[in-house]
Structure formats: structure tokens, C-alpha cells
Specification:
405 residues, D-amino Acid Aminotransferase, Chain A, domain 1, Dna Ligase, domain 1, 4 domains, four-stranded parallel β-sheet, globular, binds adenosine-5'-diphosphate, binds magnesium ion
Length: 405
């Protein structure tokens, strides 16, 4: 099978999916705005051919290059796991007559208002919401929905430009900061715990599923630099308090007509047990969560995705052996990393449960923690028992400190 992989080497995780495609026997052709020599070696080695384009945003030029290729080589699939080019992938599929999400099916995955309207129509629980492009529209929505509420872009990512608003005064303060956002969703603020529901599907069947527990909720993690955000893949998906979220996620896939590939959903569980849908992407979760899921299962989910989209199955056995958690670190101070404290003690106590350590070295410039969840580095820990995993993750969150100056 010949697979056209859009942006095969960027962002960094794409190279692993590209490699996965080659591993399961696909013939992989790359298409992207990196020249072949600039691709990560992993991606370059997996490609039989690479089509460099000046910009993936130039849809006309990209379509020309792809159709030229398609005249010489049959293309069986167009895959894209990078959010900004999902619509491009859908357009190429439609024009080549290939299976997979159409443009119309892709839009709800990119527009949070469209997504919620579809789910509402199917009777699934979303936050009360309104979409608007005007300041007057936000005020009208606030009046109708009430405080506390959330204002966020309809096509946001990484909690960017997302605000919890508790009062008229706060809304007055927040509105000027949203001037550059063309379309916003105003939503009822849903208090509770926040989880993911991630799947790999083929032919509309869920072949692999995963739930991560965010500690704390992403908006809180994004609001306070001192927090070390934890994303914990849970071992026991049969736990009674996860069933509502699983069922909701499965229903969402059905309503949106998703059939093949990776999805990343988010849902909230209120104190009274009610579950509320958050959002969905037709792509894997970011922030190295696929690595976390790999450590939870000892599987290769990059290849499992590739197997699902090319062969309609997952051949490797996948067993949930551990809870696995990523702990992201943000250094104290600005500038370059000077030192860290606590790692030796933590490794002496928990070393056998540490699956990966990837912290910025001394001398490296701090990353922008608001722009990237990865921040100044991360540790992945794992353990079969949930409360022990929480204990270990919390220890790395609080007792490992990095400093910059
Ligand atoms: N209606 C809501 N109620 C409570 N928290 C919300 C709501 N909408 C968003 N949030 C918070 O903001 C974060 C980012 O919003 P989300 O819709 O997931 O967009 P993004 O694409 O930026 O991840 C969520 O993870 C959650 O913590
Ligand atoms: Mg989100």
C-alpha cells in the first residue's frame, strides 16, 4: 500500500509514525515543507520518496505536486496527524477519491462549536455553550450561560487564549486579550476531574483505547508556572468511575463518523459523577503522551496506528501493565539551567519505576513553558498500582526542582 504522509518529520513525533508505517509494510511517500535532508533520520529512512513543497499552506501548489505524482504512482492513503493540515489532507483525499475523513467530516474536529452542535443534536452532554465572533455576542452568551464560564478560541490548542471568567468585572478584563481571536466559544465552566479518551480505530471499530488523568486540569497547569503538570495513563480502564467517559467517547466517535486512525478526546467528570464531553482531535495526543501510553503497555503504538490505518488491524498484543505518568518540569528563574535538586534522592527511592528522564541539561536555555507543555523537560514513571504511581509522580512533581539564572 502506498501511503502519502503529510509532514513526515515535523513535529518530532511524526517521524515515529512515519517509521511505524514502514514497519508494517507500507510504502511511504513524504510530503512536507522540510527538504529531505532536513528530515529526522528516522523519517528519512522510512520514506521511499519525499515531495518537498515550499509551504503546506499553499494548497493549490500542494495539490499540483500530489496530482502529478498520482499520475505516475498510485496513492492509496493520505495520512496527516498534524492538526493544521487535516483539512489539506481531507481535500487531497477527496480529489484523489481515497477513503478517510472528508472535508465535511474533518471540520467538526477543527471547530469546537460545530463539534458541540453535532453532539448536542445526538443528545450527548457538552457544556452549555455559544459561539460568537463579536464582543456583544460574548456578553449575550455570558448572560445566557452565567458565571463561572470559559471563553476560548473555537480552534484552540494547548489552552492558548483560554480563560475562566467568574464575574462581569473579569469578563471586562479578559475581552481585550481576546481581540486577536476571530471566533470564540463561551462555555459553562464544568468543575471536576479531567481525563482523556484516546483511541486507535479501524473500520469504525475501537482497536485500542486509553484514558489519561490530568493532574491538575490543563487550564490550571497553564495558569501557574510552579505547577509540574502530570499526565497519567491509567492501567485499569474497567474502573467503574471511568465507564461514563468511555461510553461518551465511543458515542462521540459514532456521531462524528470517525472510522480509521488515532483520536484524542477530553472529558470531565463532575463531583456528582456526571460526565461532560470536552473536545476531540482526529490525531494522537501531543505532549509525548504516545510515549506514556507505550510505557503503560510496553507496546509500539506508533506502529499500531500504522497497522490500523493500512491493514485494518493491530497485530501486536497490547496489554495494560502499568499506570504511566509524565511529569513536566519548569525551572525556577529565567535564562539558562544552572542546576537541579532532588534527582539523586528520587532515583535512589524510585529508580526502578522511572521509565524515561529527559530534562534540559545545565547550560541549556529554558523553554517557554506557556508555549510548550514539555517545558524544561520531563520524567516518565510507571507502576502497576495506581496509588503508588500517584505517590511517585507527586514526588517527582514536588521534590525535583530545576533552577535557571
Ligand atoms: N467548559 C469548560 N469547563 C471547565 N474547563 C474548561 C472548559 N473548557 C475548557 N476548559 C479548560 O481549558 C482547557 C483547554 O480547553 P480545551 O477545550 O481542551 O482546548 P485546547 O484545544 O486548548 O486543549 C481544558 O483542558 C480545561 O482544563
Ligand atoms: Mg484540550
Amino acid at each position: 500500500m502506498n501511503v502519502l504522509m503529510i509532514s513526515p518529520g515535523y513535529p518530532a513525533e511524526m517521524a515515529f509514525f512515519t517509521r511505524g508505517l514502514a514497519d508494517v509494510g507500507a510504502t511511504v511517500i513524504g510530503l512536507g515543507d522540510q527538504p529531505a535532508f532536513a528530515l529526522p533520520e528516522l523519517a528519512r529512512d522510512a520514506l521511499i520518496h519525499h515531495l518537498p513543497v515550499g509551504s503546506l499552506a499553499d494548497e493549490g501548489a500542494v495539490a499540483g505536486v500530489v496530482h502529478e505524482l498520482a499520475r505516475r504512482v498510485p496513492i492509496d492513503r493520505v495520512e496527516c496527524l498534524w492538526e493544521p493540515y487535516m483539512i489539506l489532507a481531507a481535500k487531497l483525499r477527496e480529489s484523489l477519491g481515497l477513503p478517510g475523513l472528508t472535508v465535511g467530516q474533518t471540520v467538526p474536529f477543527r471547530d469546537k462549536e460545530r463539534m458541540k452542535l453535532l453532539l448536542d443534536a445526538a443528545g450527548l452532554r457538552t457544556p452549555r455553550h455559544a459561539g460568537t465572533a463579536t464582543v456583544a455576542g460574548v456578553w449575550a452568551a455570558a448572560e445566557q450561560i452565567g458565571f463561572p464560564l470559559i471563553v476560548k478560541p473555537v480552534d484552540g490548542a494547548g489552552s492558548a487564549d483560554t480563560y475562566r471568567v467568574d464575574s462581569i468585572g473579569e469578563l471586562n478584563d479578559v475581552l481585550p486579550m481576546l481581540r486577536h481571536v476571530p471566533q470564540v466559544s463561551v462555555e459553562e465552566f464544568v468543575d471536576g476531574e479531567e481525563f482523556t479518551y484516546d483511541t486507535i480505530c479501524a473500520d469504525g471499530r475501537v482497536l485500542f483505547e486509553n484514558i489519561c488523568w490530568y493532574r491538575p486540569r490543563p487550564l490550571a497547569a497553564k495558569s501557574h508556572e510552579w505547577i509540574s503538570p502530570v499526565t497519567m495513563a491509567l492501567r485499569d480502564l474497567d474502573a467503574p468511575d471511568l465507564q461514563g467517559g468511555r461510553a461518551l467517547g465511543a458515542a462521540v466517535l459514532e456521531v462524528l463518523g470517525f472510522r480509521d486512525g488515532f483520536t484524542h478526546m477530553e472529558w470531565y467528570r463532575k463531583a456528582d459523577g456526571e460526565v461532560v464531553f470536552g473536545e476531540i482531535g482526529a490525531r494522537p495526543p501531543g505532549g509525548r503522551t504516545v510515549d506514556v501510553m507505550n510505557y503503560a503497555t510496553d507496546a509500539d503504538l506508533f506502529a499500531a496506528w500504522a497497522d490500523a490505518v493500512t491493514n485494518g488491524r493491530i497485530s501486536q498484543p497490547i496489554e495494560r501493565r502499568y499506570n504511566a505518568a509524565s511529569v513536566f518540569k519548569r525551572a525556577n528563574g529565567a535564562g539558562r539551567i544552572t542546576h537541579s535538586e532532588g534527582l539523586d534522592r528520587l532515583l535512589a527511592q524510585y529508580g526502578e519505576h522511572v521509565a524515561a528522564i529527559d530534562l534540559l541539561p545545565v547550560g541549556a536555555h529554558r523553554r517557554d513553558w506557556r508555549a510548550t507543555l514539555i517545558s524544561d523537560g520531563m520524567v516518565i514513571v510507571r507502576h502497576p498500582d495506581l496509588s503508588t504511581t500517584v505517590e511517585i509522580a507527586d514526588a517527582f512533581a514536588t521534590d525535583l526542582q530545576m533552577y535557571a539564572g
